[in-house]
Amino acid sequence: MDGWVDDASGFVPGESWGFDLSSIVCPTHFWHSDDDVNAPLPAVKRLVSAIPGARLTTWHDQGHTAPSRYAEQVLTDMIAAVAAAH
Predict the structure, then answer these.
(1) Mapped to the 3 state alphabet, what secondary structure does 12-68 carry?
(2) Are 80 and 86 in contact (CB under 8 A)?
(3) Which residues are within 8 A (CB) of 41 and not within 5 positions of it... i.e. 6 or more apart?
(4) CA angle (31 as vertex; 9, 75 as ends), nearest 5
(5) pTM value?
(6) Of 22, 35, 56, 71, which alpha carbon lies 20 to 30 A from 46's?
(7) 41 occurs within a structural domain
(8) Cα–Cα distance measured from residue 19 to residue 71, given in angstroms and rounded to the nearest whole number
(9) Is residue 21 part of a domain?
């Protein structure tokens, strides 16, 4: 239960993550569905806006497990990001 509470508190606007999200300097990309009831899109958008240079790919009506169904796209995006950094 403690793990779920820790995770869920990260979705509350203004709740501390225990570190400054703006201090993240590595490339950050989120992949998310607009109808994910377990991790609401507005919470993810707050993370994206707080992390410098963070990117967001959003799928429509794909639910919480969308990234697993779009694994090829996620991996392709990750490989492209690594290639662009070198």
Answers:
(1) CCCCCCCCCHHHCCCCCEEEEECCCCCCCHHHHHHHHHHCCCCEEEEECCCCCCHHH
(2) no
(3) 32, 33, 34, 35, 58
(4) 130
(5) 0.83
(6) 71
(7) yes
(8) 29
(9) no
Total residues found in the chain within this entry: 86
Q: Provide the β-strand partners of residue 30.
A: 56
Residue (of 86, 82, 28) closest to 53 by Cα position: 28
pLDDT in tens, 50-70: 999 999 999 999 999 999 999
Structural domain containing residue 75: 27-86
Q: Which amino acid belongs to residue 22?
A: S
Token pair of 77, please? 């995006």
If one counts the domains in the chain, the total is 1
* Residue 33 covered by a domain: yes
Distances in Å between the Cα of 61 and the Cα atoms of 17, 36, 41 are 28, 8, 12
